[in-house]
């Protein structure tokens, strides 16, 4: 699957099968995150890779919007340096790399944000790191073809000045 196809078809998945993600596949996903660009190439992110079922269940309990993480096979908690003004942008880029790589090898994923205070002790996140988001990974329960609910390009892309219609052939 090429990257355009992956972007076109990928949907956030919150339901996963019992199939485990093997180490080679997990490495492919994590390496994709590692290859992402970051402001000044500081690579300040740290990935806490959770596979322990009890910790996954705790994560689910501690999130009002990420209860589905319990069904995922792997969770990656993306920690960043909060002193950098663009730290959440860097986190988003690394996670997008991971999610697209995962999709390309048949693994679904979804992200959620969570208050660090709720999980800092659980995951041992140091005080000088910020938990930007958590992403869950797992194989889909059935084949999913993407149909995205997105605004049309004309509504969000402008020519030269905000609000000016962009004409494309
Ligand atoms: C910054 C951000 C935060 C999100 N937080 C949550 C969340 O807390 N819980 C959740 O289930 N999904 C969360 N999502 C997933 C979005 O709901 C999802 O990307 C959006 O609905 C589009 O899904 P689609 O690509 O499948 O169409 C988040 C996505 C982003 C980009």
Q: How would you characterize the largest beta sheet?
A: 4 strands, antiparallel
Q: What small-molecule ligands were found?
A: flavin mononucleotide
How helical, in percent, are the residues?
25-40%
Order of helices and strands: HHEHEHEHEH
CATH superfamily: NADH Oxidase
CATH hierarchy, class = Alpha Beta
**CATH topology group:** NADH Oxidase
CATH-level-2 architecture: 3-Layer(aba) Sandwich
Q: How much beta, percentage-wise?
A: 15-25%
Q: DSSP helix count?
A: 6
Shape: globular
Low-confidence sequence ranges: none
Rg, nearest Å: 17 Å
Average pLDDT across residues?
95
Across the major sheet, the strand order is 1-2-4-3
Q: How many runs of DSSP E, i.e. beta strands?
A: 4
Number of domains: 1
Supply the helix-strand structural class: alpha+beta
End-to-end gap: 27 Å
Structure summary:
The protein has helices at 3-9, 23-34, 53-61, 87-104, 116-123, 153-156; strands spanning 46-50, 74-80, 108-112, 130-138.
Describe the protein.
It contains 6 helices and 4 strands, in the order ααβαβαβαβα. It has 169 residues and is an alpha+beta fold. The protein has one domain: NADH Oxidase, CATH 3.40.109. Helix 2 (23-34) runs antiparallel to helix 4 (87-104). The site of flavin mononucleotide (FMN) has 11 residues, from strand 3.
Could you name the key traits of this structure?
169 residues; alpha+beta; NADH Oxidase; 4-stranded antiparallel sheet; 6 helices; 4 strands; 34% helix; binds flavin mononucleotide
């Amino acid at each position: 699957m090429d990257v355009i196809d992956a972007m076109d078809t990928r949907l956030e998945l919150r339901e996963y099968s019992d199939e485990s993600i093997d180490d080679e596949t997990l490495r492919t996903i994590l390496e994709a995150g590692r290859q992402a660009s970051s402001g000044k190439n500081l690579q300040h992110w740290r990935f806490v890779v959770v596979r322990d079922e009890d910790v996954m269940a705790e994560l689910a309990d501690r999130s009002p919007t990420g209860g589905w993480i319990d069904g995922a096979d792997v969770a990656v908690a993306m920690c960043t340096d909060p002193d950098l003004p663009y730290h959440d942008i860097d986190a988003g880029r690394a996670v997008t790399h991971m999610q697209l790589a995962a999709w390309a090898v048949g693994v679904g994923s979804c992200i959620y944000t969570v208050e660090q205070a709720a999980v800092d002790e659980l995951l041992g996140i140091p005080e000088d790191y910020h938990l930007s988001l958590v992403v869950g990974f797992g194989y889909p329960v059935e084949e999913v073809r993407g149909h995205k609910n997105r605004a049309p390009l004309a509504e969000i892309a402008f020519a030269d000045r905000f609000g000016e219609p962009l004409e494309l052939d």
